[in-house]
Amino acid sequence: xxxxxxxxxxxxxxxxxxxxxxxxxxxxxxxxxxxxxxxxxxxxxxxxxxxxxxxxxxxxxxxxxxxxxxxxxxxxxxxxxxxxxxxxxxxxxxxxxxxxxxxxxxxxxxxxxxxxxxxxxxxxxxxxxxxxxxxxxxxxxxxxxxxxxxxxxxxxxxxxxxxxxxxxxxxxxxxxxxxxxxxxxxxxxxxxxxxxxxxxxxxxxxxxxxxxxxxxxxxxxxxxx
Length: 225
What we know:
The protein is mostly helical. The chain has nine helices and no strands. The protein is globular, with a radius of gyration of 17 Å.
C-alpha cells in the first residue's frame, strides 16, 4: 500500500476524478497482486505474509489481506495516525479485488506463461500505486504504519520500512509464503514505476501552473496500499 508525501490537493478539486482514481487504483492493485500470485515466482513483502497465513487457514489470501489490514489500522491508534477515505477503502477493496481476479485467472504452468504474468503484475502494480496515491485520500494502513513509526521513534522511514518488511517477509516465508525472483524484482522496480505513474496521474491544478506531484521518493516509502 512508504508512501511518498501525498500530493497536496485542495479537498474539492477534481473530486469525481480523484474518487475514480482512488478506487480504480485500489482495484488494480488487488488485480496486480493476483497476477503475482498466479505467476508463483515471488510476491510483494506483505503478500508473502498474507499467503503464508492463508496456507495455514481456510481463508483466501484476499480475506487475510483484509484482516491484516484492519489489524494494522488498529496500530494507528497508539501511533496517533489519522485515517482517510483511502485508508479505509484500501483495507477492503484490495483484498476483494485480489480474490475476484484469482477466481477468474486459471493456474499458470510453465515459465512462458509465468514470467509474462510476473512482469505484467509488477507494471500494473506501479500504475495502480500511482493512481491511488495521486488521488490524495490518505495513506494505506501499512504505509501509515511506516510513517507513524517514523514520527514516534525519530528513525528514518527507510529504516522503519526495512525493519517491518524483513519481519513480514521472514514470518510469511516461515508460514509458507512464496519468495523468489519476483520479490526481488518488485523491490527494485516499484519505486521508479510508482514515481513515473505518480506524474502521469497527478491531479492537474485548477489554473495555469505546474502539475502537483509527489516530491518524495516512493522507493523510500511505498510498501502497499
